[in-house]
Structures are given as C-alpha cells and as structure tokens.
Amino acid sequence: MKLYTFIFVLFCTIQLTYTQNYKFGKVSKEELLSTFYSKDTAAHTVLLYRKVELKFKYNPQEGFVQYRHVHERVKIYDKNKSNWGTKVLRLYHLNDEQSETLRNLKGYTFFMKNGKVEKVKLGKDAVFEERINKYNKKHSFTFPKIDDGVVLEYEYDISSPYKEIKDIDFQFMIPVDKFDLEIRIPEYFIYDKHVNPNSKLSLGLAESKQNREFQYTYRNDKDALKTYSLKGSKESAIATGTLKYYENIITSNLESIPALKDEPFVNNIYNYQGKLILELSTIKLPNSPENYRSTDWSKVAKTIFDSENFGQQLAKKSYYQDDLVKLMGDNTNLSEIAAKIFNFVKSKMKWNGNYGKYTSVGVRRAYKEGVGNSSEINFILIAMLNSAGIKANPVLVSTKNNGIPLFPTINGFDYVICAIETEGMVGLLDATDKYGSLNILPDYVLNWKGRLVRENGSSTWINLIPSFDSQSTISVNAMVNEDLSISGKVRSNYTDYLAREYRTNFARISDADHIKGLEKKYGNIIISELEFENEHNEFLPVKTSFNYLIEDGIEEIGENLYLSPLLFLTSEDNPFKSEKRLYPINLNYPLKMVYKVNVIIPDGYEIAEKPKNTKSYFNTDEGMYSLIIRENGKYLQITFQEELSNPVILPEDFQSFKAFYQAIINTQNQKIILKKTEL
What we know:
The chain has eleven helices and 36 strands. The protein folds into three domains: about 1-25 and about 40-290, Immunoglobulin-like (Sandwich), CATH 2.60.40.3140; about 295-465, C8orf32 fold, CATH 3.10.620.30; about 470-675, Sandwich (Jelly Rolls). It is of the alpha+beta class. Strand 27 (about 555) and strand 28 (about 560-565) form a beta hairpin. The N and C termini lie far apart (about 85 Å). The strands form eight sheets. An eight-stranded mixed sheet has the order 5-4-8-2-1-10-13-12. Strands 25-26-24-23-30-34-33-32 form an eight-stranded mixed sheet. Strands 20-19-18-21-22 form a five-stranded antiparallel sheet.
C-alpha cells in the first residue's frame, strides 16, 4: 500500500511538472479547467507565472540603455471580483529623448471551447495611451472575452535611458504561483540593495558575476571613447575596439508567494509588499572619476527646490497682486489676513485631482484658469502669504498612496502643502481641501513625515500626524412617551478632524439629504428641525441640533421596561473581528468622544437595575472609556466617554485592543431596567 501511494504521488508530481510549461503561449488544458487554487482557495485570481528580466544593452548612439522584459500569465476564477482584465502601466515621459518606451506588447485570452484550447489576440484597438501630466503617460490594455476560467497571458518590454531602476514587485493582492527574476547590471553601475523591512516575505535572492564585452568606436585624434556616456560618433569614428567588463547578476526563483491580505484601517497595504529596491549609489565608467549618486534628504529637498517647476514657480508674484491688494485692504492683523488668503485660494482654485511635487502647467496659467494640481494650488497660497508679510514655505509630502520611502530619493515625495512659521510654531495648510483648516489636512496626507523646505536651501522634518485630540460632544435629552416611543433633542459639537469629516459628509447638500444621512447613520430614528452651524467656516467647530423620535425606543417585557443607556448612539458591531492582525491599525488622529444622555423617567416607574459605573484603559494611557450613570430625582444622567491618544495600534497589541473595543460595545449595550413604582 505504501509503495502504491509513493508511486501515485510521484506520478502526480511528474504530471504537474510536465504540464507547467511557462513558455509564452503554451497555456495548458489543466490551467484552463482548474476551478480553484489549492494553495489559496479564496483567491479569485492567481498570477500563475511572472517573469522579470532586467538588463542594460549597449549601443554606440545611446550608451547603456535599460531594458525590462515582463511576462505574466494570469488565471481568472471569478471575473466579477477580478480587476486583472485590464493592465495599466505608468511610464515616465518628458519628451522623445527623455522617456520610457513600451515595446513589443503582445497578449492573448485563452479559453476552452468544445474540449480544445482556443485563444483570442489582444487587439491594437484595446491598447490605450494617455498623458497623465507633464511627466507621465499611462498605457493600458484590456483583454477580450473575459470570463470565469480564462487565462490571460501577455509580455512586453520597457526601455529607459535612465539608470535608476524601478522597484521589483514580488507580491500582489493575488497569489503568485511562480516568479522568476534575473537582473544583469554592468559593473559600472553600483546599486545598494534594499528589501522592504515591513514585509515578511523572503525574496530568495542569489548573486553572481559573468564576464561580458561590447564593441565601441574611437576617433583618430586618440581621444578615446566618450567615457562618461560610453557613446561613440559614427561621423568621426575610424576604428572599433572591444571593452571587457563583468555583469553583477541577481536572481530569484520563488514559488507559492502568498497574496497581500488587506485589513481594515491600514494606511497603505503596499507599505508591506515584498519587493526589491535598487538604489543607484555610484557610476564608475572607464577612465572617469566616480560619480556618487547616493544622497540624503537635505540634498533631495534642495534638488527639488532648485527645479524650475518648484522654486522658480514660488518666485512668481505679479499674477495675483491685484487680488491680494483687495483682500488685505487696510487690515494689519496677520492672522486675519492669512485666513482670508487661505479661504480665497480655496474658493478660487479647483483641484484637478492630480498629486504632484512639481507644477504641471505653471502657477500663472493655473491661477488664470482656476484649476491646478496640488503643487500649483499650494504654491499660489505660499506666494500670496509671503507677499502679505506672512512667512510661508512648502512642505514636501509622501501621500499614503506613495507609501513610505526606504531611502532618500526624489520619488519619495509626491505632494506639497504649505507651512506657516511664526514664533517658533509651524502651522500646516492645504488649499486643495475645501474642508481643511489650520493643521487640518486630508487623510491621505497624514503619512510619515513632511520635509519643510526654505528658500535659503535649508530643510527640516516636521510631523504630519496630529498630536491633539479631535473631539465630539453629543448631548441628548430623552423623554419616554406613553406609547413607549422616545423623543427629544440632540445637540452636537465636532472639532478639528471630526469637524472636517462631518463637513465632508454633510456640507453642501440639502437639509433633506442631510437628514437622510443622519437617519441612516443612527438607524431607527426620525429626525426633524435640523440646524447646522459653521457649515462653511472651517476654522470653527461644527455645531448641529435636531429633534428626534424613536418609535420603538423601549422594550417591554412583562411589567418592566428595558432601555439602552445611549439610545441610538450605541455601537453594536466590532470592526476588529479577525483572529490575528498582520499590519498596524491606523486611525489617523487621536480622538475624544463624549456622549451625555439625560432621560426623564416616566411617571409610575422607577429604576430597578442599571449598569455599574466603570472605567477601563488600553495600554496604560493610550486609550480609555468610562460609563457613569447618576440618578437625580426623576432624571437619569448618563455620561459615556471614549479616548484614544495613540491612533496607531501595533499588531502585537491587537488582541488587547480588540478586547478593549469589545468591552466598549458590551458596556454600551447593557440595559437599564425600569419597574413600576410600588403603591
């Protein structure tokens, strides 16, 4: 029996090996007939095979040119859940000479028909090219006949005149069954290798060397080859020579790479992606001095500032002068002037949705047209503030989408905000955000640190994560009616980021839609007479009030009434359900929430039982909740308070935080029991 089992397993292994042909176009019946991925049965899509080959080819006109060849084979199990039917490539494109180029694209959709493997070619009409901004183009291609069970296969080359190497991704939101990597780098280009320290994936890298050679031309004046660029000149060349060198080779051959598993409240799941980062540190060409490319963040900041699309844009002033004079008038209060300028830029300028540390069309044109990217809008704000005598400087930011850079690089930043410096204090502004105010920034900006850059070339780090509490205070008056419905009035006050969130959800919509949104938020409640204060004044807290009716507000069992202490403010669901946590929880900012509920005890009833007063902490002082219930004659005063001073919860603290949050829900869902008064 054991021998039979061994032979069967060996046979299956041989069959599996035989059927896994990764040559382009050799998709098997087994791959098409597969109905699930045994290594991850929840996967709706699997990257069956991925190959990346990167090398530098030499030609006399251009010198060493970087080429990246990519071959991928994708199995789609569920077309409704998969987004791999369209592939998007973003390439740097400044002009014809300074651009990455997509070459040799071909692809097919494979499917079964009448027991045979059929395929349909990716057509030219399914390939699209779009300029995103001044510096980038987007190439996308959509496969035909996408359906459950199909296999997509494609390959392409990308050539680049640059020596910088884009990150090599090993891991995706879908599993990878097999990945082959080969990188060949001439000895003249030295890179520092980095792996993502936040990833748990081992990349299995191996390194070796191989001798190579190429032909070059030289001139008869004995001026050897143009050493810096390794380019020759056809016109003046009279002879050729051979240059021998070696290549540094990096390879990896991995199988069964698990998918990245997204979790609630993760700032950017790709911060934890398995990938290889190659940082160009030195260029050492024959007969040339070493060109050191490694840098630090201060040099990166200065390089960006010195660009004509950064610092020079900040120096332009004439285009807004007339408007600035009208704004300032006779006012000499700098705080009031700053607020006026900020609100003016927010009102005048419309953000086109594009991030950018550099301008795209320039501040003059953006101002004239009233539309710009993030840098153009905030450059206008910075320049106007400085012209008004208010010290303002740009802050370079890496948004959550851009992730957290692992080493100093220009690409580590993709956004610009404004910093006002006064009396040793720094205040942050972002004029692209219609609901932002001083030190209240969009959620996607609350990532890592910002680099404040001054005109004199100096720069420094500043913290983007708020250290202050955003607070909400909700007061509820409640009366139990004869039909056991509950009615009363609610007054709310929201500050800082909670005010921004409220405005984002409810500002600039009708009262009717506002009421519908609140009724959906709070559940079984009817709202009337809504008032909304400071809707358009982002420097003040949001204040709201409304009347409410809960038709089924009390549960009657026998002669007793059962009442939830927080009524419709009760939390019923714990968003942290998983058994374990892989990545930190990021809640963006510290918060403090206070609920005050005053209930008039109905005539003929008294309190039979009520929850005990309680107070509990998370990680000593990083979180706290408390419940206090007091009787005051016919009134029942209930106060619930929740605080979280540290918005980042590490995976090792997840179980205790999950228990802490569940304790909050359990506390809120206790019942107050009212019984009839004894005669």
